[in-house]
Amino acid sequence: MNILVVGGVAAGTKVAAKLKRDNYDHKVKILTKGKDISFAGCGLPYYIGNVIEKKENLIVNTPENFSKLTGVEVLTEVEVTKVNPKEKTVEALDLRTNETFSYSYDKLVIATGADPIKPPIEGIGLPRVFFIKTPEDAVKLREAIQAGEIKRAIVAGGGFIGIEVAENLKAQGVEEYKIIDASLSPNIKGAPYVDTSNVNDELTGIDKNDKLLLVCNKGKRAYMLQKRLRNLGYINTLVLESGTTFNQVEVGAAANV
Ligand SMILES: Cc1cc2nc3c(=O)[nH]c(=O)nc-3n(C[C@H](O)[C@H](O)[C@H](O)COP(=O)(O)OP(=O)(O)OC[C@H]3O[C@@H](n4cnc5c(N)ncnc54)[C@H](O)[C@@H]3O)c2cc1C
User: Fold this and answer.
1) Which atom of ligand 1 is nearest to the CA of 34?
2) What is the percent of the chain with per-residue pLDDT over 70, rounded to a whole number?
3) In the predicted model, what is the mean pLDDT of residues 207-220?
4) Beta bridge mates, 75
5) Which pLDDT score, from 0 to 100, does residue 184 have?
6) pLDDT on residue 249
7) Residue ranges, CATH 3.40.250.10, the chain
8) Catalytic site residue 216?
9) Given strand 73-75, what is the order of strands in its sheet?
10) Superfamily for 116-253?
């Protein structure tokens, strides 16, 4: 059987490998848009923070290794642009050459994952706006930090990825915004923890002119902290909360369909 798998990171590679393991006679081909397959998304924030030093350590398997190991054919930098279910073919664009090819299949697996939402706000395409999804994204951001181009940062989106990225930006010295952890159980290494139930006076080590990013898994505590701090004269605060909207725009991920 001729099986095409579109998308080659976690889901695509696992499906393809399993199909070959079940029946080595299946012809299984992965078509994927990115340069890398099977990378460790969870390591990207730590690459930014230089905890993971080498990009190679983010890559679980190269296309060549994966092919050798499993017998699956892998084509990278190939974007599927159209599915023709009646003819059982897909059209795909080779992103290196800009040529379009057609691939036939008996069975089609779509494992195209999700990409960060790019909210339609002015300036979203500027070079200093970064999205963190692939190893190349993390490489680009770390290079900009190490070139001294980034002194202060706003992380839009305070789910676990936003928090890990904020923590690692801080580790790289990007901290004109001081990150204050307002969660019930503090989880940002190195960030001052502020217990919202206990803010009655000025905070030690924090100046009233500091720009403060109040980070919390559920926004309520951070907003409470913001209110208390404002009353004490700390007026330059921003709240970063989980599943957040930033300047009224949605951030997060959207499925690739
Ligand atoms: C910064 C970060 C940190 C994370 N940390 C963790 C963690 O700690 N723990 C955890 O469990 N998960 C974590 N994740 C999530 C994890 O990486 C994802 O759940 C996982 O990558 C999803 O795999 P997937 O194969 O479904 O989709 P994806 O990883 O999105 O892969 C889909 C692939 O399909 C390709 N594609 C899309 N459209 C097309 C098309 N038309 N044609 C060809 N190819 C296409 C894409 O380019 C991509 O390569 C993290 C993710 C990120 C970004």
Assistant:
1) 47
2) 91
3) 81
4) 31
5) 82
6) 44
7) 116-253
8) no
9) 73-75, 27-31, 2-6, 107-110
10) Rhodanese-like domain (3.40.250.10)
Q: Which residues line ligand 1 (CB under 6 A)?
A: 6-12, 31-34, 41-42, 44-45, 79-80, 111-114, 132-133, 161, 256
Are residues 17 and 70 in contact, defined by beta-carbon separation less than 8 angstroms? yes
Please report how the helices 63-70 and 10-22 are oriented relative to each other, as an axis angle in degrees rounded to 10.
Answer: 20
pLDDT, tens digit, for every residue of 87-138?
999 999 999 999 999 999 999 999 999 998 887 777 888 888 999 999 999 9
CATH topology of domain 2-112: FAD/NAD(P)-binding domain (3.50.50)
pLDDT beyond 90 at 245 = no
- Pairwise CA distance, residues 237 & 229, whole Å: 8
Backbone angles phi, psi at 41, to 5 degrees: -55, -35
Average pLDDT, the chain: 87
To which residue do tokens 């081909």 refer?
29
The number of the ligand 1 atom at minimal distance from the alpha carbon of 7 is 34
**Separation of alpha carbons 202 and 199, rounded Å:** 8
User: Which among 4-8, 49-53, 150-154, 208-212 has the top mean pLDDT?
Assistant: 4-8
Residues of the chain with CATH 3.50.50.60: 2-112
Find the 253 Cα to ligand 1 centroid distance in Å.
Answer: 10
Going by the DSSP 8-state scheme, the letter that residue 116 receives in this structure is: E
